[in-house]
Design goal:
By secondary structure, the protein is of the alpha/beta class. The chain has 15 helices and 20 strands. The protein binds 1-deoxynojirimycin. The site of 1-deoxynojirimycin (NOJ) has 9 residues, from loops.
């Protein structure tokens, strides 16, 4: 098999070893039936684009039956397709066609919680305290004389308390929205059901899973209070703090990952990546032991500022963490939960120029890359009007946090007005698209050699075909302040980034690609370059 780095890959190297995954946020990718919401047929109709872009695999966000309180991350039936997105036949057709295009398909798995509309939760509500039905979730009596206070002080990642009281007085745990009750992972039925779900999709031909909140699931038996310093920060911010958060990363979680791995090992060539917001490197590495997850999302590049030291720190940290267990690193600049990176880097033309520079940095790194749909078009994060906001964070935070909708606006495909080819019949998209996205459409960018899309296509092709990307090790060069340069030891690729205010001399070598115009033999500010 020929793969990234242009070399024959040996038979023991798994397909995902240095793969580029493309995250499809299903609601926002392509709408085939004109209801303003993306769907499976829409994705199938655009696979030619993904092949042209040059990615190896796709990750679909949840398309399972759901009341959509958290846009599909509240799953009512994990073994069926929500009618909004299609049906099982449409899914099977999609799997077959992804494979025909020479790509792999991975799907989201949400084991931490279900929807409150899941049959199990409805049964739990109808059953008395102490029943087997309630034992599948985390029900507890309250504190206070009459149980009128929540069982502990935990907060929901989306704001407000993590407990909801039911009419008979008991409380149930929801680390996310109240419509997403947490499962009790000590219950054998919960474990067996996940195994059933894994096999269901594996038998339909999926190549792997992205595990939602992979550091959740297990909770300490006695549910101790959280450190009060964590009470007013959201789950993601807490990741950067050195305070143990009892809601996450309980040792018991590793048993769940061993269960998942045990099933995947029966389907050779399949893999799992976990969403692991765990700041401590040793504890992060534990998830990647040989009998647990294959890969772990690394969010350090998301956290890094556009500053050479900050980015270098993120890279070194990430490489160091996976080295502890001999796992492959992963790299992400954006996803459906965070502000899109051109906006994080300052927005406007400057944000775009910096995003181009960071795209080359990310794609030069050894290991696995996850792109988020629309980043190859340089889409900015949008400030949406209040009426348009749908993320539960907006309501749960009492309108203090605008939430994640600004990163989820549908893809602009073609034409000169909304919905820019997103919906076949020009229907209103589920989130409003701005009038001025004509120059950002796929159609416009494919024809423009200087576009973000052309940069991604070119970089992905070089990454896939050049021997310069061989090997997994890198070494750092000395570089002027505000800059860095590293070299891929195996193949010799050099990547340099300048985040300082002045042009600096280019490292020696022949230029393969630059993120922007070079200044003779100098690397201008906000620019990166690949050389051999
Ligand atoms: C992480 C997902 O990426 C996010 O979108 C979702 O809201 C939470 N997990 C809860 O499932």
């Amino acid at each position: 098999m020929v793969h990234s780095s242009g070399e024959e890959q040996d038979a023991d190297t798994p397909w995902w070893h240095d793969a580029v995954f493309y995250q499809v946020y299903v609601r926002s990718f392509a709408d085939s039936n004109g209801d303003g919401v993306g769907d499976l047929e829409g994705i199938r109709s655009r696979l030619g684009y993904l092949e042209l872009l040059g990615v190896d695999a796709i990750w679909l966000t949840p398309f399972y039956r759901s009341p959509m309180a958290d846009h599909g991350y509240d799953v009512a039936d994990p073994r069926d397709v929500d009618p909004l997105f299609g049906d099982l036949d449409a899914f099977d057709a999609l799997v077959a066609e992804v494979h025909d295009h020479g790509m792999k398909i991975t799907v989201d798995l949400v084991p931490n919680h279900t929807s409150d509309q899941h049959l199990w939760f409805q049964e739990a509500l109808a059953a008395p305290p102490g029943s087997v039905e309630r034992d599948r979730y985390v029900f507890r009596d309250g504190r206070g004389v009459h149980g009128e206070l929540p069982p502990n002080n935990w907060t929901s990642v989306f704001g407000g308390p993590a407990w909801q009281q039911v009419p008979d007085g008991q409380w149930y745990l929801h680390i996310f929205a109240p419509e997403q009750p947490d499962l009790n992972w000590r219950n054998p039925q919960v474990q067996a059901d996940l195994e059933h779900t894994l096999r269901f999709w594996l038998e339909r031909g999926v190549d792997g899973f992205r595990i939602d909140v992979a550091h959740g699931m297990a909770k300490p038996e006695d549910l101790p209070d959280m450190d009060p310093r964590l009470l007013n920060v959201d789950g993601l911010t807490a990741f950067a703090m050195d305070i143990h958060d009892p809601r996450f990363d309980d040792d018991g979680v590793h048993e769940v990952h061993r269960l998942i791995r045990g099933v995947l090992d029966q389907y050779p060539g399949t893999m799992a990546i976990g969403e692991i917001w765990v700041g401590d490197d040793d504890r992060f590495a534990d998830y990647l032991r040989s009998d647990e997850l294959h890969l772990g999302f690394n969010f350090r590049l998301v956290d890094a500022r556009f500053d050479a030291d900050s980015v270098r720190g993120a890279i070194e940290h990430s490489l160091g963490a996976v080295a502890k267990v001999g796992a492959q690193p992963t790299w992400t600049l954006s996803n459906h939960d965070v502000m899109r990176h051109p906006t994080r880097y300052g927005g406007g033309p400057l944000g775009t120029v910096r995003a181009r520079a960071m795209a080359l940095v990310e794609l030069a790194l050894p290991g696995v890359v996850y792109l988020y749909n629309g980043e190859e078009l340089g889409l900015p994060n949008l400030e949406l009007p209040d009426w348009a906001l749908q993320d539960p964070i907006w309501e749960r935070s009492g309108h203090a946090e605008r939430g994640r909708d600004g990163a989820r606006v549908p893809m602009p495909w073609e034409g000169n007005q909304p919905p820019f080819g997103f919906s076949e019949n020009g229907a209103q998209p589920w989130l409003p698209m701005p009038d001025d996205w004509e120059s950002l459409t796929v159609e416009a960018q494919l024809e423009d050699e200087g576009s973000m899309l052309s940069l991604y296509r070119q970089a992905l092709e070089v990454r896939r075909t050049s021997g310069a990307f061989a090997g997994d090790e890198l070494e750092w060069y000395g570089a002027p302040p505000g800059c860095f340069a590293f070299r891929r030891k195996g193949g010799g690729l050099i990547c340099a980034l300048n985040t300082s205010a002045a042009a600096v001399p280019l490292p020696p070598g022949d230029v393969l690609i630059a993120s922007g115009p070079l200044d003779g033999t100098k690397l201008p500010p906000d620019t990166s370059v690949w050389l051999v």
